[in-house]
Structure formats: C-alpha cells, structure tokens
Amino acid sequence: MLVRVFGNTSLNPDAVGKLVLTVDMTESARTNTTKVYDLTGQHELFSATTTVQATAEAYARDPYAMERDNHLHSEIRRSLHDRRDALEWVPIDKATREVAPKE
C-alpha cells in the first residue's frame, strides 16, 4: 500500500524504519527537514526541506507561513503512521475559527 506523503511522492509505510525531523533557526529564518529512512535506518527514502522567514515583516506578508510549514512536516509523519494520504493545508482564520478566504 502506498500513501502520498508530499506533493506527488508516495511511500509504503511498511518500508519505513525511522523519521528524523531537524529544525535549524537563524535570526531571520527557520529551516525544517524531514527525512524518511528504510527499515535498516541507513538508506534515505525521502527528504523534504522547507525554509520560512521568521521576521515580523514576513509574518505581516503571510501570517500562515509558519503554520503551513508545520502542517506540511506533520502530515508527512501522520500519513505514514496512520497509513493515509497527507492532508492538504487549509488555513483557519484565528478570529472566527472558520476557513480563511483564499487571496
């Protein structure tokens, strides 16, 4: 059974041995890397790296950037654990708790 973990990439959860999430912070950016390894833990099956600006100006431009990035990496892990396709990002307005309008 294959599950979609990221974009058009699918993996067999039975072939996964370990997941490693690495977070690197600088003054102006945060980089998340999720690596998926085989059952031996030696061979990398998949890797996703994202970088998000971590400044007040970046937050003003895109207040959902960090949440979207967190969701992406969480869904890689959840899709393999729950044996289901990764869910798409849907922004929720913090004030109304409803789906935010697309811009």
Question: If you had to describe this structure to a student in words, what would you say it looks like?
Answer:
This protein is an alpha+beta fold. The chain has two helices and five strands. It has helices spanning 56-61, 65-82; strands at residues 3-6, 9-11, 16-25, 29-38, 44-53. The protein has a three-stranded antiparallel sheet, with helices on one face. Strands 1-2 form a two-stranded antiparallel ribbon. Strand 3 (16-25) and strand 4 form a beta hairpin. The longest helix has 18 residues, at 65-82. The chain is flat. The model has no long low-confidence stretch (mean pLDDT 89).
Short descriptors:
three-stranded antiparallel β-sheet, two-stranded antiparallel ribbon, 2 helices, 5 strands, flat
Percent in strands = 35-45%
Stretches with pLDDT under 50, minimum 5 residues: none
The shape is: flat
Order of helices and strands: EEEEEHH
The largest sheet, given as strand count, sense and whether it forms a barrel, is: 3 strands, antiparallel
N-end to C-end Cα span: 36 Å
Judged by helices, strands and strand pairing, the structural class is: alpha+beta
Summarize the amount of helix as a percent range: 10-25%
Number of helices: 2
Question: Spatial order of the strands in the main sheet?
Answer: 3-4-5
Average pLDDT level: 89
What integer value in Å does the Rg equal? 15 Å
Total number of beta strands: 5
Please describe the topology of this protein:
Elements: E1 3-6, E2 9-11, E3 16-25, E4 29-38, E5 44-53, H1 56-61, H2 65-82
Antiparallel strand pairs: 1-2, 3-4, 4-5
